[in-house]
Recover the amino acids of this structure.
């Protein structure tokens, strides 16, 4: 049973920040919006991409083993292929080299991430492995507190949450969203949580984690379409077999929106827009992988071929407001209308009752005569 759960979680929570040459490209490009990240319009490379990089970098390191940055490339490639223990070994080899501060940070960040993923896919039995992963990320944040635009703070919190809710004898098991709110209290911190979660989705595999998606919909966390999309994605993932790293109560029935969406009549139009964007995101990734595979099979690779992306045109992706402005105004101000309209309704109802009573009284008098 633990093996089956581990397979589910391998895809569901391969979630954290890894550093290689692609990370730098992401950091210098505009991050996809959170909506795009939730629905899955994010770049994912096929296994052959990482296999080719791994084979090439291995040859380069055999020729010259004193190239610290290449150790990151091959270690992340191994991790993307599911070989987390190999990724850890490459980081241990890197640790024996003379490193700059930034190279030391990358070593700690990568090794902590690989250890966490090894714990997840290994049945979540070795708490010592998880503790070692947490320590690595803590050290990485000491070396570089602002790394990944603050995303690593959220990654560390996610790992600590996983450790807490899986600790033997633990009785209090909050959802990830509630844990993050307590870890980073205050309205201004909510925006940073959004940025952190979005970054983890873009640079990892958290877009297939029900825990992360449900966080957007936790009561008190986020509101509006963002919350509803997170809830819909979490439910979708749960229905195809992805499972929580935390409490068993983390099921679709508990992924409340915490907003007026469910109450105000937004449900149908928002669901339709979510489905439209999910289909568009799936098409984007399918077309991108088709484009890449044709070139990868021909021996071309973006690392070594500057013309690799010539000819690529991304399918259109245009989020739309699923609710008309007039309807949205009415729903967003429904409580105001209730407060103002209640006295008017009472007056009108009283008038109608009085009018009806007078009419009945006249009829009664006529009958008495």
């Amino acid at each position: 049973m633990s093996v089956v759960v581990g397979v589910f979680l391998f895809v569901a929570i391969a979630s954290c920040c890894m550093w290689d040459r692609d990370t730098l490209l992401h950091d210098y490009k505009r991050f996809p919006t959170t909506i795009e990240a939730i629905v899955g319009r994010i770049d994912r490379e096929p296994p052959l991409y990482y296999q080719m990089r791994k084979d090439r970098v291995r040859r380069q390191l055999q020729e010259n083993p004193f190239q610290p940055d290449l150790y990151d490339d091959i270690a992340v490639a191994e991790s993307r292929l599911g070989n987390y223990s190999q990724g850890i070994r490459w980081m241990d080899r890197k640790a024996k080299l003379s490193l700059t501060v930034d190279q030391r940070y990358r070593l700690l960040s990568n090794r902590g991430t690989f250890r966490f993923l090894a714990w997840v896919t290994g049945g979540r039995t070795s708490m010592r492995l998880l503790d070692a992963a947490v320590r690595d990320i803590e050290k990485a944040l000491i070396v570089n507190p602002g790394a990944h635009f603050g995303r690593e703070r959220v990654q560390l919190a996610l790992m600590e949450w996983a450790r807490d809710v899986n600790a033997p004898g633990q009785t209090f098991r909050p959802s990830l969203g509630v844990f993050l709110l307590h870890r980073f209290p205050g309205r201004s911190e909510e925006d940073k949580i959004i940025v952190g979660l979005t970054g983890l989705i873009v640079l990892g595999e958290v877009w297939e984690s029900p825990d992360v998606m449900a966080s957007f919909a936790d009561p008190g966390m986020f509101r509006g379409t963002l919350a509803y999309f997170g809830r819909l994605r979490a439910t979708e993932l749960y229905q195809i077999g992805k499972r929580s790293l935390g409490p068993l109560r983390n099921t679709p029935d508990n992924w409340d929106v915490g907003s007026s969406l469910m109450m105000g009549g937004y449900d149908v139009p928002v669901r339709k827009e979510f489905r439209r964007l999910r289909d568009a995101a799936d098409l984007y990734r399918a077309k991108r992988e088709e484009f890449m595979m044709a070139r990868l099979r021909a021996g071309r690779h973006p690392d070594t071929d500057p013309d690799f992306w010539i000819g690529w045109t991304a399918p259109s992706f245009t989020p739309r407001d699923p609710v008309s402005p007039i309807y949205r105004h009415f729903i967003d101000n429904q409580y105001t209308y209730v407060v103002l309209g209640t006295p008017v309704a009472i007056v009108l109802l009283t008038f109608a009752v009085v009018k009806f009573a007078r009419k009945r009284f006249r009829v009664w008098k006529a009958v008495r005569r």
